[in-house]
Structure formats: C-alpha cells, structure tokens
Amino acid sequence: MDFDPADVRPSVFYQQMIHCIVPRPIAWVSTISEDGVTNVAPFSYFTGVGSRPPTLLFCPANNRKGEPKDTLRNIQQTGDFVVNIVSFALAKQMNASAADVPSEESEFDACNLTQKSSLKVKAPRVGEAPVQFECTTRQILNIGDGPGGANIVIGNVVHVHIDDAVVGAKELVDPDQLDAVGRMGGLSYCRTRERFDLNRPGS
Ligand SMILES: Cc1cc2nc3c(=O)[nH]c(=O)nc-3n(C[C@H](O)[C@H](O)[C@H](O)COP(=O)(O)O)c2cc1C
C-alpha cells in the first residue's frame, strides 16, 4: 500500500498516522481560563524539545467548528500550562477528561481530580499525576486553519514536580513505578512494562 496524502481525506490520513506513529506519550495538559475556569485534557501529539532551554511541545488541533480547543484558548489567554504524566492508574480519568465538556465547566470536577496550585504558573496541576511540568508559553505555531487544523504549542519548562514514590536509582524516575501509558491507534493504549536495553555503538 502506498498513497499521496493529497489523495485521501484528512480523516483517513489522521487514522493512518495514529496507527503508524506508536506508541505516543500523553501530555495531560491542565490550564486555567482568564475567567478562572480550570481545564484538563489529553494530547498524544506530544514530545520533549530540548534541555537548553528546557522545552516541550504538544499539538492541539482546532475543534470541529474550526475554533481553538479550550486548552489552546486558555493558553492564549493566560500564557501558561502544566503537562502532567499519565500513569496506568489514571488512564480512565485521563480518557474521561477528553469528553466535550462545556467551556464553563471544569474537567477537574467532572473527572474527580485534585486541583493543586502550581509554584510558578497560574495553571493548576493534576494532584494525582506522578510527574508535573509547569510551563510558560514560548511559541504557538499555527499549521492549518479550519476544523482539524493543527497548532504546535512550545513551552518553556519552568518547574518540575516528581513524586518521590516514582524516583528510583541515581535519582531518576523508575519506569516501573511511573507505570506510564502510551496511546496507540483507535481506542488502544499500551503500558511501558516490557522493555529491552541496547548498548550504544562504540560504548
Ligand atoms: C489519549 C488521547 C490523546 C489525544 N490527543 C490529542 C492531540 O494530540 N491533539 C488534539 O487536538 N486532541 C487530542 N485528543 C482529543 C482531546 O483530548 C479532546 O478534543 C479534548 O476534548 C480537548 O479538550 P479541551 O477542549 O478542553 O481542550 C486526544 C484524546 C485522547 C483520549
């Protein structure tokens, strides 16, 4: 099978992308609007960017009406956000937080999550999450307009919280304790329990 993306509908291209680019880490992004309504939603088009300066990115697409999702709108209004990492124990609440909740309602309440104040940003953290990255907005890039049009949000990581319970040898996060989940295609997820090591060439 091979195809030119220009010859298929965007929804078909999207489906192939999310089945091929796997597993994807999940940024569980918490924000607050200028009116003080808090929000949390998952985004699996997510990765780290660099460490000098400490940066990460995630990609909120426009909603079906072609408008920014609440997460992006809040970030445009307040200039900051928190990326929370999702452990297996939180997978159901993470999934529930992807529901289309009216802008004036908080997913923190709807999903029974603890809203914890951040140290350096206005956006709250998900208290239950084992890792929380407080971020200020570095840049927002618009990639496409209208429904499904993409945006890239690049954040400066200004503070990191790691639950001591997931810290292992050499002060680093222990993957078994973190028990992070990744997103596959369709409705599938994976856990991070099966791993293997490879020596770097020349080492
Ligand atoms: C695991 C998972 C990953 C998701 N990844 C993305 C993504 O990368 N980009 C996106 O625009 N929506 C993604 N979504 C859908 C959003 O979470 C959903 O549209 C949510 O309602 C947005 O919330 P908001 O309007 O409060 O910002 C994902 C949903 C799930 C369950």
TrEMBL record:
InterPro entries: Flavin_Rdtase-like_dom, Split_barrel_FMN-bd. Residues 22-172 form the Flavin reductase like domain. The keyword Secreted does not apply. The keyword Thylakoid does not apply. It holds the Pfam family Flavin_Reduct. Its cofactor is FMN. GO terms for molecular function: FMN binding; oxidoreductase activity, acting on the CH-NH group of donors, NAD or NADP as acceptor. Keywords: Flavoprotein, FMN. Belongs to the flavoredoxin family. This is Flavin reductase like domain protein. It comes from Fuerstiella marisgermanici.
